[in-house]
Design goal:
The protein has 157 residues and is mostly helical. Helix content is 59%, strand content 0%. The protein is elongated, with a radius of gyration of 32 Å.
Length: 157
């Protein structure tokens, strides 16, 4: 019984996660190619209400309005880039889930590699400092310590 539960738990864990999309059937386009493009664009745009979901995943009213807007722009003949630029012009770059690589976002893109590099350097120097004597071995005695040891041993005899 325990093995069966373990096997079922493993199979459940290996199942691909289902994506619960908030797109309503009345929003969908009849043209499958346009609908696919709309889904691609919607996956790149942030819901301004939820802020951690794409507009494709959000049930917020604003997300629904943005999904409809994307589909309207596509049916008017806009390219994917034109639709995204339109939404960014209207709501700002915060609406993009993946910010553009630009001069004003340079710190956002470069900070993680710089912090990782500084951390690696700090770890390198910390390990190098710890490696002065191998574990289990004592450091050799200085001349002064050897003289003192000889005095102590000669007094005991």
């Amino acid at each position: 019984m325990v093995r069966m539960i373990a096997v079922l738990a493993l199979l459940f864990a290996l199942l691909p996660p289902s994506t619960a999309l908030a797109v309503n059937p009345d929003e969908m386009l009849d043209d499958p190619a346009l609908e696919e493009r709309a889904r691609e664009i919607s996956a790149e745009l942030r819901c301004l209400v939820c802020q951690n979901q794409s507009i494709d995943d959000s049930n917020a009213d604003l997300a629904k309005d943005l999904r409809v807007l994307v589909r309207e722009r596509l049916t008017e003949g806009d390219s994917n880039a034109q639709v995204i630029d339109f939404v960014v012009d209207r709501y700002g770059e915060f609406v993009l889930l993946k910010p553009r690589f630009d001069l004003h976002t340079l710190g956002l893109w470069l900070a993680p590699p710089i912090v990782l590099g500084l951390g690696a350097i700090a770890v390198f120097f910390a390990l190098r400092r710890r490696r002065t004597t191998p574990a289990g071995e004592a450091a050799p005695l200085s001349d002064e310590e050897q003289k003192r040891l000889a005095e102590i041993l000669s007094d005991k005899r």
